[in-house]
Design goal:
The protein is mostly helical and about 425 residues long. The chain contains 20 helices and seven strands. It has three domains: about 10-60, no CATH class; about 65-335, Orthogonal Bundle (Fic-like fold), CATH 1.10.3290.10; about 355-430, Orthogonal Bundle (Arc Repressor Mutant, subunit A), CATH 1.10.10. The strands form three sheets. Strands 5-7-6 form a three-stranded antiparallel sheet.
Length: about 425
């Protein structure tokens, strides 16, 4: 269980001011440690770690910026690390020219569909969707009906993200928020009436996923509408004091989870609001980042960032820093993924070119899938969905691979056909490799 930080006496507050501006304290503050880190640092001969913590708090107080929602006051600092991360993200996920060079134009739609799938799967898995990534992606690609609650959560998340993407410039409102939550939770709630409904009960507690202890008691239901009204105003207006859009999006993410206005789906809805806000502010490349995948991998750190904020006088800096680091990691992973996929496709296309075989990048990807998964069976609809192309283009890609001897048609019924590797597939692959 995370320990809440100690509170200083009046005398300790005065004593901490004497060391707050020392180089040692300023250097330590750059990583913005919480009490559970400071507590176990090697002792300084001039002051103990309790006093060091109070000195950090005094230093932070000099730089705090404040935001209020209802009767709740929150604060945050802008550290040097945050400035560096924000600059890097501005240059990469908001810079049109740079982004255009990172994502090959001919593959943009396919990469976009894949990233939205990854985001939907990871965000749902964080909330308990018990299915594998492989099964979930296949379900989405083949447009299959979900078989259980976990798969339904993923389908809902995927459809909601696409809905937000297509309505990114819509003005945020409480009614639109309720609609988003309804989309997220359709057919997954114990009480279907709770979809799209602001809760009217108070027996809602957020549990610590590791210890099982109560981590957060959300505001009572009588406070929800005023708090959501403040969130609506915060989302739509421009403050007199500038707040960086990415920082503001992260605060919106935190506040929706903190307010917890719904019986279920608050986490998924909060992450979708963050995604929506950044799209609205021109960070179009966020569509290609699976930030929830990074969060899912470091779920405990994500949960700690929430708890640190609440336990340390509503200091949002912990949560902001965590999310900025996650975004940077997501962007770096995207670059590696794009590099790997480009090299894979180019190698198959190059080999095919040398052998005089005319195939396009999509067909190269289909062949690669068959090399890796020989028992794969494709439908025209699946290829249409995967590559975001027309039905006729998907049909042409597959039938041409049949003519080249790589695929065979399988008649499923009078109207529907599927495609699998041909008997001579391995021989043909060997011939041009």
């Amino acid at each position: 269980m995370i320990e809440k930080p100690p509170k200083a006496t009046g005398k300790e507050d005065l004593e901490s001011l004497k060391i707050a501006l020392s180089s040692n304290v300023q250097q330590l503050n750059e990583k913005y440690p919480y009490w559970d880190k400071v507590k176990y640092l090697p002792e300084n001969k001039n002051y103990n770690n309790r006093m060091l913590w109070f000195a950090l708090k005094s230093l932070r107080m000099l730089n705090y910026k404040f935001v209020n929602f209802g009767t709740y006051s929150f604060r945050y600092s802008i550290t040097n690390e945050m400035l560096e991360l924000l600059h890097d993200l501005d240059m990469n996920i908001g810079g049109y020219l740079t982004s255009e060079n990172i994502i090959p134009a001919q593959n943009k739609n396919r990469y976009l569909v894949s990233s939205i799938m990854e985001e939907a799967i990871a965000s749902s898995q964080m909330e308990g969707a018990s299915t594998t990534r492989k099964i979930a992606k296949e379900m989405l690609r083949k447009n299959e009906k979900p078989k259980n609650k976990g798969q339904q959560m993923i389908v809902n998340n995927y459809q909601t993200i696409n809905y937000i993407k297509n309505n990114a410039q819509t003005v945020f409102s409480i009614e639109f928020l309720k609609e988003i939550q309804r989309f997220m939770t359709e057919k997954t709630l114990d009480e279907p009436i709770d979809a799209g409904k602001i809760r009217d009960i108070d027996n809602i507690m957020v549990m610590d996923g590791i210890t099982g202890n109560i981590a957060h008691n959300p505001p009572v239901h009588s406070e929800l509408l005023p708090l959501l009204q403040d969130l609506e105003n915060f989302f739509n207006r421009s403050e007199k004091t500038f707040i960086h859009p990415i920082v503001k999006g992260i605060i919106i993410h935190f506040m929706l989870a903190y307010i917890h206005p719904f019986v279920d789906g608050n986490g998924r809805t909060a992450r979708s609001l963050f995604y929506w806000y950044l799209l609205k502010k021109g960070y179009w490349m966020v569509e290609y980042l699976s930030i929830s995948r990074i969060i899912y991998k470091t779920k405990r750190m994500y949960e700690k960032a929430f708890l640190y904020t609440e336990y340390d006088d509503n200091d949002l800096t912990y949560f902001i820093l965590y999310n900025l680091r996650a975004m940077k990691t997501a962007f770096n992973e995207l670059k590696l993924y794009l590099k790997r996929k480009t090299e894979e496709n180019n190698s198959i296309l190059l080999l095919a070119h040398f052998k005089g075989i005319n195939i396009n990048p999509r067909q190269a990807k289909i062949l690669k899938n068959l090399i890796e998964k020989p028992n794969s069976v494709f439908t025209i609809k699946e290829i249409e969905t995967q590559f975001v192309i027309s039905n006729q283009t998907a049909r042409t890609d597959l039938t041409n691979l049949v003519k080249l001897g790589f695929l065979s048609e399988i008649q499923i019924n009078k109207r529907k056909v599927a495609f699998s590797k041909s008997i001579q597939f391995e021989e043909n692959i060997q011939n041009f490799s």
